[in-house]
């Protein structure tokens, strides 16, 4: 039945897409009324006034170049007029905080970059990544919350978690990445938005045939090949598209092991003269990579002081052989938004989406004696036979008059995971076999299915007065969820609701100054995978709920772009996640938490080729509840202590320089000291990371329209620092099982950490054609 539901979901989705691209002639006729003012063409599908909007800047605006030229640093003049700091900041007009990096900055970074690499210098974020090849994703800390509290979107559809962010889209096909740290639009399909939204916006297919090719080689035997082919407009249909493929190979920077990733992106778009449009994006990702051993503090200091590593071993006879610690995963992702302009000042947005994945994580399971008396290594698995999510958002918009636009909508999503925990013999060559191979399987393990069904109604109104100087956004979203978990011991389910009011007010004083106020409620419910780690004997955690206020000021002119935002959060039923190994997490509740502080961003427009950028955040986050530690069977006196994974200060500096064909960008990031346990008895000190990018655009030659060479460096100083905790723990005294190289498993204590990868360099040659 599960596969029938998948087939039905894909069939319905395909039908929606085909219907959109084969719209009847009536829809293609020019509208007899003017297009609503708020429905300008945008690549982000949820077309609401709360989306990160591009401001209209009168100076410096020139004609828009064709998208095929977007692969060079010579982007259009209108885009440059909206950017500061070499694309590290963009002029925004939404009545809430928005932080964006644009194509100008993306083009200077290594093609292996994920969205996490690109946003790590935004003021409200601390980003940690375990490798330099872009295959493993990472984690986000944002205003005292984490990426598990955030909605992560590609073209407005829910995408892979930050730990697997590389599954989403190749960086060559990214147009921009935006973070709204304190808000979430009413029409977005997210169930975890307490920490805001990170939205990846994919490219618009070119109107001309052509493509892009690049090749990268770097540290740790990194090699990557990428090819994109553009169809241009197909006949006179108005349909255009692209297809791209990339292949990445690298070895682990710590310990032994190799990682492999293959990825496909496919995009289609059609625009009609009356303002209607349809977009289709599909990505497929296949990855095999080593699951890192994340060190305890003892392992980290041993490495820092003696050089003894904690990674996987190349000894095939060891239970900790890298081939016995790997992640194997296949993922498909589809987003297909349609915007239809209707008569009588009406328009309709329909946005179906679908994702499906299968795979497993392997980890050492110790040793055993088989029937022949031989000692054999074991492998434990986290096996997901299915992770499936299908949903749609439908929204009807009515432009009541030139000042007021009203929207009403419905969101439906069904998500399910089918997972089990088998055990197998390790293969003779040391590798982990497929957990489904009967010749090696010892036990099929416990099987669990978990999931949820969401139904949500929302209304939203955007009003503009005083010659559009005053913008008022008001909305309300009511979410109804049936959430369930089934295992060997039984079944449990719960019906949950979440009322989510929102109010944003923005006032543009003149062409240079704007102030805004944003107030809203957001929530987070446990994900399907979270539930899969909880036996039915454990109650389903309550939804986390937050009330957030934000007050901001923006300024921009011909020389600088600046943004200041003050915020205050109050959370109840705070959900944090403990890392349990095999790249998986288990949720638990720590009561109430409060966060308040401010973000500052400032960027300069190019002056003699130099474009500076700086940002800083101050955060005061405190735990407001005492918490019971089940490992030590004691109540932790955590009330009033610094909240876990919430550093007081985050600061960034960037500088971009361009001269003729030459370009360079350097960044420095600082994160202050932070607590990594609920009890506050384990901390990590502040640290600094840095990056450098430089390259040259050569003149067109034969078929090569934009031959470019660039070098990208990370961790220039070779710092050995912990960049963040893998998750939350109750106390530094909590025990856990530790693996390290050829050492036998032993008991470690406290948290485990991500460590900044050593110095790396990547060289890339590329050209559009």
TrEMBL record:
InterPro entries xref list: Beta-barrel_TonB_sf, Plug_dom, Plug_dom_sf, TonB-dep_rcpt-like
Keyword Transport: yes
Subcellular location: Cell outer membrane
Ranges where the record places region Disordered: 26-60, 69-88
PROSITE patterns on file: TONB_DEPENDENT_REC_3 (PS52016)
Compositional bias of kind Low complexity: 69-78
Family matches, as Pfam families: Plug
SUPFAM superfamilies: Porins (SSF56935)
Major location (coarse): membrane
Bias (Polar residues) ranges: 38-56
Superkingdom as given in the UniProt entry: Bacteria
Keyword Signal in record: yes
Domain spans labelled TonB-dependent receptor plug: 92-195
Membrane topology: Multi-pass membrane protein
Annotated keywords: Cell outer membrane, Membrane, Receptor, Signal, Transmembrane, Transmembrane beta strand, Transport
Range of residues in the leader sequence: 1-27
Family statement drawn from the similarity comment of this UniProt entry: Belongs to the TonB-dependent receptor family.
Stated name of the protein: TonB-dependent receptor
């Amino acid at each position: 039945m599960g596969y029938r539901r998948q087939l039905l979901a894909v069939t319905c989705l395909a039908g929606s897409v085909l219907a959109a691209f084969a719209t009847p002639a009536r829809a293609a006729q020019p509208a007899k009324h003017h297009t609503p003012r708020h429905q300008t063409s945008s690549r982000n599908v949820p077309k609401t006034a709360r989306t990160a909007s591009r401001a209209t800047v009168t100076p410096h605006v020139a004609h828009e170049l064709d998208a095929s030229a977007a692969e060079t640093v010579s982007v259009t003049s209108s885009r440059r007029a909206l950017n500061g700091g070499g694309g590290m900041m963009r002029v925004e007009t939404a009545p809430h905080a928005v932080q964006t990096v644009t194509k100008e900055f993306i083009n200077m970074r290594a093609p292996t970059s994920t969205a996490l690499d690109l946003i790590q210098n935004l003021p409200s974020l601390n980003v940690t990544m375990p490798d330099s090849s872009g295959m493993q994703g990472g984690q986000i800390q944002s205003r005292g919350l984490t990426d598990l509290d955030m909605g992560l979107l590609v073209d407005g559809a829910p995408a892979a978690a930050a730990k697997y962010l590389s599954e989403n889209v190749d960086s060559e096909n990214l147009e921009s990445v935006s973070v709204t740290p304190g808000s979430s639009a009413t029409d977005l399909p997210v169930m975890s938005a307490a920490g805001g939204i990170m939205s990846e916006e994919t490219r618009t297919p070119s109107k001309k045939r052509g493509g892009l090719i690049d090749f990268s080689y770097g540290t740790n035997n990194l090699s990557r090949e990428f090819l994109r082919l553009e169809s241009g407009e197909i006949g006179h249909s108005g349909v255009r598209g692209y297809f791209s493929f990339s292949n990445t190979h690298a070895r682990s920077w710590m310990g032994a092991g190799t990682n492999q990733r293959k990825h496909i992106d496919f995009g289609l778009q059609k625009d009609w003269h009356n303002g209607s449009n349809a977009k289709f994006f599909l990505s497929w990702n296949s990855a095999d990579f080593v699951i890192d051993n994340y060190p305890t503090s003892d392992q980290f200091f041993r490495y820092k002081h003696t050089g003894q590593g904690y990674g996987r071993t190349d000894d095939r006879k060891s239970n900790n052989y890298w081939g016995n610690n790997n992640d194997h995963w296949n993922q498909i992702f589809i987003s297909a938004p349609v915007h239809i302009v209707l008569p009588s000042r009406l328009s309709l947005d329909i946005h179906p989406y679908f994702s499906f994945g299968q795979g497993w994580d392997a980890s050492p399971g110790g040793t055993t004696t088989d029937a022949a008396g031989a000692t054999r290594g074991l492998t434990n698995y986290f096996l997901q036979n299915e992770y499936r999510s299908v949903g749609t958002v439908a929204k009807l918009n009515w432009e009541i008059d030139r000042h007021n636009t009203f929207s009403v909508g419905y969101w439906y999503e069904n998500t399910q995971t089918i997972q089990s925990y088998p055990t197998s013999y390790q293969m003779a060559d040391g590798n982990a076999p497929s957990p489904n191979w009967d010749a090696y399987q010892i036990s099929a393990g416990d099987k669990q299915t978990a999931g949820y069904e969401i139904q949500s109604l929302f209304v939203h109104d955007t009003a503009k007065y005083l010659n559009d100087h005053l913008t008022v956004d008001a909305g309300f979203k009511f979410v109804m969820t049936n959430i369930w978990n089934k295992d060997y011991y039984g079944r449990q389910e719960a019906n949950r609701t979440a009322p989510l009011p929102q109010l944003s007010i923005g006032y543009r004083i003149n062409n240079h100054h704007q102030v805004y106020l944003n107030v809203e409620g957001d929530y987070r419910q446990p994900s399907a995978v979270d539930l899969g780690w909880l036996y039915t004997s454990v109650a389903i955690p309550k939804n986390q709920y937050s009330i957030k206020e934000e007050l901001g000021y923006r300024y921009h002119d011909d020389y600088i772009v600046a943004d200041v935002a003050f915020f205050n959060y109050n959370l109840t039923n705070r959900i944090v996640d403990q890392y349990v190994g095999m790249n998986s997490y288990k949720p638990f509740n720590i009561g109430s938490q409060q966060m308040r502080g401010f973000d500052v961003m400032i960027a300069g427009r190019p002056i003699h080729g130099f474009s500076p950028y700086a940002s800083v955040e101050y955060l005061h986050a405190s735990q407001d509840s005492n918490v019971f530690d089940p490992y030590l069977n004691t109540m932790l006196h955590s009330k009033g202590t610094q909240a876990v994974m919430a550093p007081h200060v985050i600061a960034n500096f960037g500088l971009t320089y361009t001269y003729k064909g030459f370009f360079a960008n350097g960044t420095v990031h600082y994160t202050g000291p932070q607590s990594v346990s609920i009890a506050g008895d384990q901390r990590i000190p502040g640290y600094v990371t840095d990056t450098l990018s430089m390259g040259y655009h050569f003149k067109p030659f034969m078929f090569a329209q934009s031959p470019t060479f660039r070098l990208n460096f990370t961790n220039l100083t070779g710092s050995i620092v912990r960049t963040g905790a893998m998750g939350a723990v109750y106390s530094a005294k909590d025990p856990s099982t530790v693996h390290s190289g050829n050492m036998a498993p032993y008991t470690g204590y406290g948290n485990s950490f991500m460590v900044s990868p050593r110095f790396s360099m990547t060289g890339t040659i590329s050209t559009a054609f």
